Amino acid sequence: MRAFTKAELIRIAHHHYPPGSTVFIDIDRSTPEFQRFSAAWKKALTWAQWASLLGELRAAFPGRPVGNVTQPGMSACLRCCVYLESPLPEGGRVLTRLAGAVSVLAPLYLVYATVQHIQADGTCTRPRLFWQPPDEIRPYAELLVQHLERELDCRPFPLELANVPVPGRCVYFLNAGEPSLLDALLSNDLGNLP
């Protein structure tokens, strides 16, 4: 399977987002672009492969919680998460959320992680986002990648194109700033995981 070019990804974004710059609540839902975006979400929400993937992940990560953390329509991706915990010497724990984001607009995925320290008294550090999962969870990340590629027939999102701008387009869930390919094809808030 060949990789998408920058021009192809921009074309996909233009196909699903109308010209303009506005916040989600003010968008014109009658545009052809919004109709295509909505149709992509409608199809994704009935995607049998997604349900199958979640079942496979639960079997592949025994003893580890696996969840669907998708926020339909609030981004351009379905998301799943594998929760990995390890103890800290002083009684707390490290919570790693290994996530897979799969675009509903193109056959692309991104595997990434957040790492958070939770102290014994319940206080927490802010989760730290890693576009490349840390070495200690790399085997888990590779297993997640294998399942995403096999079950969903998608390919990695090209991180080198993540910040390519998509100027003059209304990316529905982006409230400020110029959208990027990452914003348009996946999400502008991938680090926000339950």
Automatic annotation (TrEMBL):
**Superkingdom as given in the UniProt entry:** Bacteria
**UniProt protein name:** Uncharacterized protein
Provide the species name: Archangium lansingense
